[in-house]
Amino acid sequence: MYVFDAPKQASLAVQGTDDRFPVRRIFCVGRNYEAHAREMGNDPDREPPFFFTKPADAVVDTPCTIAYPKLTKDLHYEIELIIAIGKGGSDIAEADVMDHVWGASVGIDLTRRDLQAEAKKMSRPWDWAKGFDQSAPIAAIKAIADVPSVDAGRIWLAVNGEIKQDADLADLIWSVREHVSILSQAMTLAPGDIVMTGTPAGVGAVVPGDVITGGVNGIAELQVTIGARS
Ligand code: MN
After folding, report:
1. Distance 52 CA to ligand 1 centre (A)
2. Which residue of 17, 74, 86, 139 is surrounded by the most CB atoms within 10 Å?
3. How many domains does the chain have?
4. What's the alpha-carbon Rg for the chain, to the nearest Å?
5. How far is CA 211 from the centre of its chain?
6. Nearest residue to 195 (alpha-carbon basis) of 51, 98, 90, 66
7. Domain limits at 153?
8. Looking at the domain assignment, is residue 139 inside a domain?
9. pLDDT by residue (tens digit) across 52-101?
10. 76 C-alpha to center of ligand 1: Å?
11. Average pLDDT, stretch 201-226?
12. Is residue 3 part of a domain?
């Protein structure tokens, strides 16, 4: 018995069924495409991947309208391949990673870029820049058996129909097998964990009224409308 009703389980839609994917944690990979690392002022010489997190209840099914978040004047999109873990484990070998993956999708790592810049300058954590309400809109997850590849395929994002990000999963500095294996050396992964695998170059700001579309070829597409300021 709880002292009040237990929190609702965060979850995401699944392609081709009414069943839901229960979300446990959201891990995000930083700087995983060379051109994006460079546009953010970093040298991507294959420094080990680093991770940050968002709360599980930051997920939102797409299509959706998201309120423009508080505290920022510089809300950025980051289109990312999403990996959904179905089987837990630690110290997972690269060769075994795909046995732990339930499915894949596409999502946006929404970022309050001005707060992130301030956090970097002050050597503070990124949570306020990355982990706010509705900061992880994610399309319905596709079962991994139906996913052609997590190693190649166009990943793209457009704002009001104009292409802003356009790359290929083959450009990932740390592949899914590599970064999930490395992540599992730091944390015991569990069913329901989500990995946002990093964004390619071309990030930028959106304002209320903008319509974002994006996708990963062969996996999923999404649409997110930026609503009024909350
Ligand atoms: Mn990101």
Report:
1. 9
2. 139
3. 1
4. 17
5. 18
6. 51
7. 11-229
8. yes
9. 999 999 999 999 999 999 999 999 999 999 999 999 999 999 999 999 99
10. 10
11. 98
12. no
